[in-house]
Structure formats: structure tokens, C-alpha cells
Amino acid sequence: MSAIAIHDWVRLDTTARTQLLSRPHTSAGNAHAEARSIIDAVRAEGDAAVRRFTARFDRVPLDRLESLRVTPAEITAARSALEAREVAAIERAIANVETFHAAQRPASLSIETMPGVRCEQVLRPIPAVGLYVPAGSAPLPSAVIMLAVPARLAGCPQRVLCTAPDREGRANAAVLVAASLCGIDTVFRIGGAQAIAALAYGTASVPKVDKIFGPGNAWVTAAKQIVAADPAGAAIDLPAGPSEVLVVADDSARADFVAADLLAQAEHDPLAQAILVTDCASLAAAVVSEIGRQLPRLARQSILARSVQAMRVIVVADLDTAIDVSNLYAPEHLLLQVREPRRRLDAITNAGSVFIGPWSPEPMGDYCSGANHVLPTYGYARAWSGLSLHDFVKRMTVQELDVAGLAALGPTAVTLAQLEGLDAHAAAVNLRLEALERRAAS
């Protein structure tokens, strides 16, 4: 591992600061073009293209892909492949995620904005949702929980899950157990951009869905963006790319804790990014030393060798500046390892999820604290929120006017329509007002 540089924020000009906080290059142009070609093929050829791409990218023999759907027998067998403690861990995570998301249930409302004019908001679950669970370098049963629990609580009637198979054509056992425990029985052994295309447009095997949820690599992200831009495709949850974490720490923080937190996110993906911002130069040096000590003991060396190159250690003048840097970066995950961390919370405006204090490591949010781990990355936390129950529900408004309400408010609508030069709008109201006048006169 090459030495991680420690950067002095005070000495950097605006250009250098911007460059320091830039994300790793994703080669998004290539991913977008390749995802487009995969989508076009799936639309034209359906299951045949899905099988071909699965055999190519996941290195599965075609004869193992005769049926793309996971059978009930496979789901049952998956349960016996896990130890009791593993099933119990999945169940406990589901319970916590369910507790937190159940509390998010939105309420319908009905209000009279003026006498005779009623406006309402009613809620409807999205009819068909596609849940994408990555299973490339690391199968993610935790992603099943984060997607399937709110989908079930929202009442989405059709919930379809796609996850890439291993080289034997099998879906990961833990993913299948998590899906079953979350009430999902429609699972397909499909990953990558071909899974997004199948969910967005449908094939003979895979039903078309209305909205697609879940994180993925650059090709999955590109495919989601492509189908979301197509009226014939499907909506998507949020922009989500390679993982990232930013730690704000002062001299009270433990260097070994901070180093472990940075490495925990760096192991996700070669394009993951981990950043430390601190007002303590000695802590910065200690963290760099700890990274060098901890890294060789970790398993995912090929990934870490690349992601550590994008790691940043930044020393600032004070914690107020550290929070400013964090808000500028808008991290997916923000860890506050400072004295009185909750006092800093009000100043944080841009973050996907915040972890307060030394005893709140980010993996707790990844797995089992209860909050959702599907979060905006790449700076999208400036405007986007993490996944919640609300993302699986549509809010539909209803308006109802009685005779008195139309008589009182109709002239206002006519005037506004005339201001906009839309005489058909005005006529639709005036016809009714005139009808009321005739009725009153008779």
C-alpha cells in the first residue's frame, strides 16, 4: 500500500479543495453505452438475451439457466443450508427494520380549504415493484431486508426479486432465506443490467414492474437511469453508486475505530471512497498508521488495493470547518466521532445517514439497527433521501367542490385562467357558474 497523504485544508485553494473531494472516476460513459446495448437486446429477445448475458457475465452454463425463476424447493433447501444462528441474525435484522419502517407509515388527510372546497390526500401502494439485490463479489441478504420489508409494509401486491446466480446457477442461500422471511416468493436468478431490463420491460418469465429498487454496480446504475428515462420502462428509487463514508473526528476519537470504519466501506468496491476530516493532526497520523496495520489482515485485498488510493485524510482548523467540508462532500454515510456529537447534528445538511458517537459503527446501519441502508451516493445526498416506506407508496390528491364552493371559488379560477390566456380552462368553470345562475333564477 502506498502511503496515504494527509492534506492540510487551510493550505489548499478552492480548486485544490474541489479536486481533493472529487469522487473516483466511474467510466460512466462506457457503462451507459454497454447497459443500453444489453437493454435493447433484452427488449428484442426477452429470456434468450437474459440467459445469454447471465451465462456471459456470471459464467453460468446455459443448461443451468433453463428456468430463470428460483423454485419453491430451492427456497426451502436454502433454509437448511444456513445455521440456526445465521437465520436468527436475519430474523432479528428484519424485526428492527420493520419496527423503524412501520413507524414511517404516512397518513391520509382531508381538509376543507374554504367552505365547500375539500382537498384530500389518499395513499396507494405501488402495484408492482422490482427488488434488485447485488450478489457479485458479496451476496447481500441485508439488501433483501432493506427492500422487501418496506415493500411489504407498504402493501405492494406484487414484489419481484432479482439476484445474480453463482457459477452453478444457484441463488445465494442467505438471500433466499431473507426473501422468504420477508414474504417474497418470486425470485429470479438474474443480475446486472439484464435484470434491470427484464424488470422494466418484462419477458416471458419475468413480470414487468412499475418501479425498481436496489443498489448495484456502474452498469446496474446506468441501466436504472436508462429505463427510468423511458416512459415505457420503470421508475427507480434513487441514484446509488459505489459506497462512501466520511468520518468527522476530534482528538477524543480512537484511531483504531476510525481506521476500521474507513476500511469497512473501502472493502465494498474498487470505486468506494473513505474520507477522514479532523481538527487533530496527531489523530490523522495515527489513523494512517492504523490503516497500514489493519489492512493486511483483511480478506478483500484486490478491492482494497484500489479503493485505498481514493482514501482521503484531511486536517482542518476546527470542527465547524469539518462539518462544512462534510456538507460540501454530501456523503452517503457520515460518522461523528467527536465530543458531544449530537450537538453537531443540527449543522449537518447533506448526508444520507448519520452515525453518532464511537459506539455507532456504520455496519450496524448496513445490517440491523433498523434504518435503511439504501442511500444516495456521489453527492446526491444534497437533494435525495435514503430509502423509506414512502418510496413504495403513491400520494394521490382528491378535490371535491359543492355548489357553494364552486360559486365562491369559481371566479378566482376564471381570473387566473384568463391571466394565463387559457380560455378553455376559463370556459370549463364559467359554464358551471352560468348553470348555477340559471338554476338560482328559475
Kindly describe this structure:
With 442 residues, the chain is α/β, with parallel strands linked by helices. Helix content is 44%, strand content 16%. It has helices at 14-20, 28-45, 47-57, 72-81, 84-102, 141-154, 173-181, 192-201, 218-228, 255-266, 281-294, 301-307, 319-329, 362-367, 403-419, 423-441, and strands spanning 6-8, 109-114, 117-125, 128-133, 158-163, 187-188, 211-213, 235-236, 244-249, 273-278, 312-315, 333-337, 353-356, 393-401. The chain has a 6-stranded parallel sheet, sandwiched between helices. Helix 5 (84-102) crosses helix 6. It is globular and about 90 Å long. The N and C termini lie far apart (91 Å). The model has no long low-confidence stretch (mean pLDDT 95).
Question: Features of this protein?
Answer:
442 residues, alpha/beta, Rossmann fold, 6-stranded parallel sheet, 5-stranded parallel sheet, 14 strands, globular
Lay out the secondary structure:
Blueprint (H helix, E strand, L loop, with lengths): L5 E3 L5 H7 L7 H18 L1 H11 L14 H10 L2 H19 L6 E6 L2 E9 L2 E6 L7 H14 L3 E6 L9 H9 L5 E2 L3 H10 L9 E3 L4 H11 L6 E2 L7 E6 L5 H12 L6 E6 L2 H14 L6 H7 L4 E4 L3 H11 L3 E5 L15 E4 L5 H6 L25 E9 L1 H17 L3 H19 L1
Parallel strand pairs: 1-11, 4-5, 4-7, 5-6, 7-8, 9-10, 9-12, 10-11, 12-13
Antiparallel strand pairs: 2-3, 3-14
Helix pairs in contact: 2-3, 2-8, 2-9, 3-8, 4-7, 5-6, 5-7, 6-7, 8-9, 10-11, 15-16
Q: What pattern of helices and strands is seen along the backbone?
A: EHHHHHEEEHEHEHEHEEHEHHEHEEHEHH
Largest sheet: 6 strands, parallel
Number of helices: 16
Percent helix, as a range, is 40-55%
Question: What is the second-level CATH architecture of the largest domain?
Answer: 3-Layer(aba) Sandwich
Q: Structural class of the secondary elements?
A: alpha/beta
Overall tally of structural domains: 3
Number of strands: 14
User: How much of the sequence is in beta strands?
Assistant: 15-25%
What is the overall pLDDT average? 95
- Tell me the CATH topology of the largest domain: Rossmann fold
How are strands sequenced across the largest beta sheet? 1-11-10-9-12-13
